[in-house]
Amino acid sequence: MLRPDALTDARILVVDDQPANVALLEDLLGQAGYTEVRGITQPRKAEAVFGEFAPDLVLLDLLMPGLDGFGVMARLRPQIVDGEFLPVLMLTADITPEVKRRALTEGATDFLNKPLDTVEVLLRIRNLLHTRALHLALQGENEVLEGRVQARTRELEEAKTEVLGLYRELAKRNQELHELVGKLLQTGDEDRRRADAAAVHRDGAEVVERLTGREHDVLRLVAQGQTNAEIARNLTVSVATVKTHIEHIIGKLGVADRTHAAVRAVDLGLLSARRLTTVLFTDIVGSTEMAVAMGDGRWHDLKQRFYALMRRELARFQGEEIDTAGDGVLATFDAPERAVRCACAVRDAVRGLGFSVRSGLHTGEVERQGRGVSGVAVHVGARVSALAGPDDVLVSAVVRELLPSAGLTFVDNGATRLKGVPGEWRLYTVTVR
What we know:
3 domains, five-stranded parallel β-sheet, alpha/beta, eight-stranded mixed β-sheet, single chain, about 55% helix
């Protein structure tokens, strides 16, 4: 490729029916240091030579018998890539405005008037070659940049797919763990369950003492639903080391497998309160205007009816009320499908009360703080709800990907930015089939 610091490496094609003119230019360019110069006196051969020689600049005589410079340019034009700067320097004694306009229209870059001024010839050629070299360099940089953008885009798509896959797996394991805990609480007689609980309190400290710091770390990640390979990556150890730690944990806690180890860890209070949860924000649309129009008493009664309806649906879909503030409700669910169906049921039910609600949902890891919840997932859910319109059930892409076949229809609202939350988020409106 032609470089700005090596212009004499340029390939220059001279097309002129006068052998003397071709010889003059070859000699002039050779003395100036140009080593790749090819001259032809038969314009009909220009097309073939151009394709084989691939010049960086063409010196083309305008007035030639049989096929003039305009005809040569017409034949060369299909071989020039769109957007490529390949200078064509016309050699002519005819410098009338009409000729110049036609030549520029059909692809000429500049003109040299005959008889030729050798100094002007070399300066014009150098300037045009320098421009071509800069154009090629920019083109190369653009291709490199485009390749990087495409590679980065692929990496981001792969990362997104991986994260959503992890969310699905974590949601599945969280549900399995939830069901297992429920079975443990319902199985066996009450006396034995109380005895087991008392035993936990008696020897819990001893068990905790026997677990090493690294075993605590492994157990915490096991309870989050991570695979051995994921735990190894997070702790920067080998998969074999993780397997060994899990075997020790199972032995020390006296359980049968890793799932029961996680349940036992919950009993012992070894795990943080963070877990995968779907948060639902629902509030009344146009509440301020309604409160002003209705007055305090009627508005208070209407809100109480809304809260009662909301609690009925939460009980139906196994959701947990976390907070009521103003005209809205925050609730959590351990399964995203129940959360979405609850939001749809509330939306349909409140129409009988004469108003509309909007709902926003997101699934992520939250932290329990007494009766409250916190974490980035809660902030995202609130921002999603703020973008919902009347009667909308608006969900994040995480919720959408966790419900691939739940009998729900999702309308893509495109990507948007959530206030205070980094990156772009794709949101979907839900309808029930």
